Structure formats: structure tokens, C-alpha cells
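pls design
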């Protein structure tokens, strides 16, 4: 016979399994038929449900909270402002009379707006040795030990296969710095990858025609010299070149952190040591090879370097001032007095400045000064101490004679200037010649003829006439003779220019609206409006 409830249940279940009915089981164990029925029903229910070693605690009735009256307001705020923070919701509820704490609001917001599920990392394409590289810029503001705060631009060039990286730092981010950085990377690596990815920087990509990038002709010439192909990625897609993005993060966290630099030259010296000892030797894990180890497999596949490096110098045109100086990037560089008021070509590298005369002969060579230093860089042998006044009247007469030679507009104006301004003729003549930097010689000749007809022999009148009638010019920093020659040639039968309006007439969906970009030359060709001029008898606005 059974002594406990567990033994009773076991006997009832056993007898039921042997085929006995409820009445026979009740007589055998000495209990009522209802007790047998309840035991068998509970046993069947337990077999259908899971049994827990620790019984769950009974569900409690939800208690009222202070947030209950404001649940609708929280839902409305999240619907109107999906990115609203919990702190802002808490502030709005407090303003509406909520007396509870921040924890209640935080818990309720988490239930209303669960955090998004993390997206899996995007799969990056793989490339073989020497097939692909990536390059990008990143600016940093550095406080140097010499007391000057400078904005430094870091250029990264990373090989995709070996992940070996090369860095350069410059004080400007332009085409010439980009080429200089690539030349330094190529020399460090002993070659170049067959392709290199870039973002939408203007030094590489002038603009987009639909999905087709329009590359900078000067940079294409540079890439042709080193036999690699630039590859532009679509704007706003940094994941297309993840290795160079990651390399700049490494440059910031590993190189810039915990280091001080005396000046940009000291920064470059420390950067080379860091690339040799840290960047090239870093392992992902203890068993993975270093970038330098993997580079041993990639180096034979790189494109060999040419016998001569590409000339990456920046070429600008400047007007030599009255006192024999050329202004460049916040400094002035001395030029012999023979070239006063001349428009001279200036070739600028990362370390030196070369100044040429009109016959393209080198007339001055200086070390490049710090940008924006406001220094006059003049070696003792450039300006002779016996001639500090600059160009004399004879030199000025020759300069004016070269303006408007056909109708002698410059020579006639200078003769009238000597009569009208006997004591200050040299001053006005020098100021007028300085206008050649902003206006073409033809416009200046017409302005001189117009001013002479009104008897206005002073530089202010000439400047007002040019401001009213002529558009200021922009001296090109570099003139590609081959490109200019090709543009002057008449287009052949295959040089077909399609009317861009045809793309507007395509059916819906045929064009890529997101890829529409402004013309790459809009910013370069836009001229500033002429300044407001004062009225005078020589400021006639009729045509020259």
C-alpha cells in the first residue's frame, strides 16, 4: 500500500498503464474514482508540458508607474523625431509635469525603441599582389613646439594585398602635394601598384558625367608617366577604399598620439622612423605575418619606376613688385631689378622657389619659406645696395612702350603722364603696371587710351576704368602646352560632342539622378563681380 502522495500517484499511473479502468484502480488503491481521475488528468498534462526543476514564480499584477500617464507622449516624440535621445524625452516629460526619475523613462524608451541590430561587415574585394592601392587625405591641426599652430594634411598610400602603408605630410592639399606624396611612396616601395583608388577630390576627378568620372588631365599625365591607372569611387562611399581609411585612423592613433613636433620638418623625420619601426612591423596576431613580410611577395609584381621622376613642381605667374619682390604664399622673394613690373613664371617645389625671366632663364632661386610667415627672402647679392629705388623712368618707359604697340597707347600715355605728374610720374607708372597682374595687357592698353582722351593721368582713374569695363583674369598656375594645342585644333569626325539635353529627354529611370554633378569648370571659370566704381568724367561705361 502507498504511504505518500507520490507513491499513490505512481501506483495509479502504473495500474492505468496495465489497462485497468478507473473503478478497478480506485478499489485496488483504496481511493475514490474522482481522485483517480484527477491524478490521471494531472499526469497527462504534465507529460504534455515541460517540467522545470525550479518552479517559476507566480506572475504579479503590474503596478502603476508614474510614466503610465505619459506613454502616449513618449510614443509621439519617437514617431516625430526618430533620433531623439532619452535625455531629451526626459526633459520634455518633466516640462509636461512628469515627476518620476530618468530610469523609468530610459526603460520605457528601450521597450518602445529597441536598438537596431548590428549590420554585418561588408565584404571587400580581394586583389592579387601589385594590383591595387588606395589613397586619401586627412587634415589635422598641430600645435608645434616652435609656438605656431599649423594645419597639416596627411596623405596615405596603402597597398591592398600586403597592407603596407606610406604616409606623407604637407601644409597644403592640392594636386602638386598629391603627386609629391605619391612619388615619395613609389620611391619607398620601389614601384607602384597597377591601379589606385581615390575619392572625389578635385586633384584627381574634375567632375562626373553620369557614372563616368572626368579625370584631371595633369594627374592623368602623372599616372601615365608611372604607368598606373587611377580609379575613382563614387562620392559618399568610403567603404570602397577601407584600407586607406583604416590607415589614417592608425596614423592618428599610433603616430600623432603621445608625440610632439618642433616643426613640420621634425614631424616628417619622426614619421619615417615610425613607418620603419612600427607601421611596417605591426602584426594583427602573433601568427600573422607583418606587412613587410607580405610585401616581399608583392614587390616583384609592382610596376617598375621610370628612369626619371615626374616634375611635380607648381608653376604660377606673378608680377614683380616695384621694389623687386615676388609674393608667394605669404612671403616675398627677391628678384633682380631688371624684371620689375614683369610677369614672371615661378616654379615651386616642396623645398625651393625658382623664378624665371620672360625668356625662361633662371633669374633667382630661394629656399621655400614657411607658409604665411610674412618674410622678405632676399640674399645679399640679389639687390645691389646702390640701387634700392627699383625701376627708374627709363625702365618704366620701356615697359609702357610694350603696352599697345600697335597704336602706341602705352607710350603716348606715359608721355602725357610725365607732363601731368612731373614729380609723381614714377609712382603712378609703377602702380599702373601692377594692374597687369589682374587684367590683360590688351584691356590695360584700352584703358590707357581711354584715360588719355579724358586727360586722366593717375593710377586711380586707370583702376576705375578697368573695374568698370574689364573682367579680372586668373593667371593659370600651370599651362599644358600640349593640351592647349589640341584644344585649338578643329575637332575631327570622331570628336563628337553630345548635347547634354538629350539626357534630360530620356525615359524615367534611364538616368542616374544621384550621379548628376555640376560642371567641373564652373568654379574655375566663375569671375568675381567688378567692384563698385566712383563716378568721374573718365568712367564712361561705353564700349572700348
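designed seq:
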Amino acid at each position: 500500500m502507498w504511504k505518500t502522495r507520490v507513491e499513490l500517484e505512481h501506483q495509479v499511473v502504473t495500474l492505468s498503464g496495465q489497462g485497468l479502468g478507473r473503478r478497478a484502480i480506485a478499489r485496488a488503491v483504496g481511493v475514490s474514482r474522482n481522485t483517480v481521475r484527477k491524478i490521471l488528468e494531472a499526469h497527462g498534462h504534465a507529460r504534455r508540458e515541460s517540467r522545470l526543476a525550479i518552479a517559476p514564480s507566480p506572475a504579479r499584477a503590474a503596478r502603476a508607474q508614474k510614466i503610465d500617464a505619459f506613454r502616449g507622449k513618449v510614443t509621439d516624440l519617437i514617431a516625430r523625431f526618430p533620433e531623439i535621445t532619452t535625455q531629451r524625452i526626459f526633459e520634455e516629460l518633466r516640462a509636461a509635469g512628469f515627476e518620476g526619475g530618468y530610469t523609468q523613462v530610459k526603460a520605457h524608451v528601450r521597450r518602445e525603441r529597441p536598438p537596431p541590430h548590428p549590420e554585418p561587415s561588408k565584404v571587400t574585394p580581394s586583389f592579387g599582389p601589385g594590383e591595387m592601392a588606395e589613397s586619401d587625405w586627412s587634415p589635422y591641426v598641430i600645435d608645434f613646439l616652435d609656438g605656431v599652430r599649423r594645419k597639416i594634411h596627411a596623405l596615405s598610400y596603402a597597398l591592398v594585398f600586403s597592407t603596407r602603408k606610406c604616409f606623407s605630410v604637407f601644409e597644403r592639399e592640392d594636386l602638386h602635394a598629391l603627386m609629391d606624396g605619391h612619388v615619395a611612396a613609389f620611391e619607398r616601395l620601389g614601384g607602384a601598384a597597377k591601379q589606385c583608388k581615390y575619392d572625389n577630390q578635385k586633384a584627381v576627378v574634375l567632375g562626373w558625367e553620369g557614372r563616368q568620372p572626368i579625370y584631371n588631365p595633369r594627374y592623368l599625365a602623372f599616372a601615365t608617366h608611372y604607368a598606373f591607372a587611377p580609379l575613382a569611387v563614387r562620392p559618399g562611399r568610403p567603404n570602397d577604399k577601407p584600407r586607406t581609411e583604416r590607415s589614417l585612423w592608425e596614423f592618428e592613433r599610433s603616430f600623432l598620439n603621445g608625440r610632439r613636433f618642433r616643426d613640420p620638418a621634425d614631424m616628417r623625420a619622426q614619421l619615417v622612423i615610425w613607418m620603419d619601426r612600427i607601421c611596417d612591423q605591426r602584426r594583427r596576431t602573433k601568427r600573422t605575418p607583418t606587412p613587410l613580410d607580405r610585401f616581399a611577395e608583392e614587390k616583384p609584381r609592382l610596376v617598375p619606376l621610370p628612369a626619371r621622376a615626374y616634375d611635380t613642381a607648381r608653376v604660377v605667374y606673378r608680377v614683380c613688385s616695384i621694389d623687386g619682390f615676388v609674393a608667394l604664399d605669404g612671403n616675398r622673394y627677391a628678384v633682380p631689378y631688371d624684371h620689375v613690373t614683369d610677369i614672371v613664371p615661378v616654379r615651386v617645389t616642396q623645398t625651393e622657389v625658382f623664378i624665371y625671366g620672360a625668356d625662361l632663364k633662371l633669374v633667382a632661386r630661394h629656399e621655400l619659406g614657411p607658409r604665411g610667415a610674412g618674410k622678405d627672402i632676399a640674399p645679399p647679392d640679389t639687390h645691389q645696395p646702390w640701387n634700392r629705388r627699383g625701376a627708374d623712368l627709363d625702365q618704366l618707359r620701356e615697359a609702357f612702350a610694350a603696352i599697345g604697340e600697335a597704336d602706341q597707347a602705352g607710350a603716348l600715355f606715359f608721355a602725357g603722364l610725365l607732363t601731368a605728374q612731373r614729380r609723381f610720374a614714377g609712382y603712378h607708372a609703377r602702380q599702373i603696371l601692377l594692374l597687369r597682374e589682374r587684367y590683360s595687357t590688351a584691356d590695360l592698353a584700352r584703358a590707357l587710351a581711354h584715360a588719355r582722351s579724358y586727360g586722366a593721368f593717375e593710377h586711380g582713374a586707370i583702376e576705375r576704368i578697368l573695374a568698370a569695363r574689364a573682367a579680372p583674369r586668373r593667371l593659370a598656375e600651370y599651362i599644358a602646352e600640349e593640351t592647349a594645342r589640341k584644344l585649338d585644333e578643329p575637332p575631327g569626325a570622331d570628336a563628337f560632342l553630345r548635347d547634354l539635353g538629350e539626357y534630360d529627354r530620356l525615359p524615367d529611370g534611364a538616368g542616374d539622378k544621384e550621379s548628376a554633378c555640376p560642371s567641373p569648370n564652373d568654379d574655375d571659370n566663375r569671375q568675381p563681380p567688378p567692384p563698385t566704381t566712383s563716378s568721374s568724367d573718365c568712367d564712361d561705361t561705353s564700349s572700348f
